[in-house]
């Protein structure tokens, strides 16, 4: 079992090291959503220590996302994301202190919405060069004919 876990950890490390920044953001958001789902379950069970640890891990993810905002190349979206991240940090503090399952799950929903937005943007980004190449090929072909 130990060897399996070690290989899995190595695979995950390689996956992170070779991923582009957008995919890393998706992985972070997925991690935060997973932690909050687990935290909500622990909150229901009144397992306060485990819940607090998972909320802390999620807050660390949000702080990492907050620190990586690029105000030079996307000032407006960075400001909007900053506001969302700060809101989430406050909500998670309140959820942790009040053992508030509903608030934990609402924060998870916000992370899910962010994840959906990033995923959609990355899909558009990945298909855009392809469609541009098709347009260029069509233009080249039509100029020959």
If you had to describe this structure to a student in words, what would you say it looks like?
The chain is mainly α and 145 residues long. The chain has a single domain, classed as Flagellar protein FliS (Four Helix Bundle (Hemerythrin (Met), subunit A)). 89% of the residues lie in helices and 0% in strands. The protein contains five helices and no strands. Helix 2 runs antiparallel to helix 3, helix 2 runs antiparallel to helix 5 and helix 4 packs antiparallel against helix 5. The chain starts with a helix and ends with a helix. The C terminus is likely disordered.
Outline of this structure?
The protein has helices at residues 2-18, 21-44, 48-67, 75-98, 101-144.
Secondary-structure blueprint of this entry?
Elements lengths: L1 H17 L2 H24 L3 H20 L7 H24 L2 H44 L1
Helix pairs in contact: 2-3, 2-5, 3-4, 4-5
Keywords:
145 residues, mainly alpha, Four Helix Bundle (Hemerythrin (Met), subunit A), 5 helices, disordered C terminus
Roughly what is the average pLDDT, rounded to an integer? Answer: 84
Class based on secondary structure composition and strand pairing: mainly alpha
Helix content range: over 70%
How many E strands?
Answer: 0
């Amino acid at each position: 079992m130990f060897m399996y876990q070690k290989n899995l950890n190595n695979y995950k490390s390689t996956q992170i090291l070779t991923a582009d920044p957008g995919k890393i953001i998706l992985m972070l958001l997925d991690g935060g959503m997973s932690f909050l789902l687990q935290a909500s379950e622990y909150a229901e069970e009144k397992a306060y220590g485990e819940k607090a640890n998972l909320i802390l891990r999620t807050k660390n993810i949000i702080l990492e996302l907050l620190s990586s905002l690029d105000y030079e190349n996307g000032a407006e979206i960075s400001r909007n994301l900053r506001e969302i991240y700060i809101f989430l940090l406050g909500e998670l503090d309140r959820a942790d202190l009040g053992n508030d399952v509903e608030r934990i799950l609402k924060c998870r929903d916000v992370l899910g919405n962010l994840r959906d937005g990033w995923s959609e943007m990355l899909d558009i980004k990945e298909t855009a060069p392809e469609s541009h190449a098709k347009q260029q090929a069509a233009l080249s072909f039509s100029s020959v004919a």
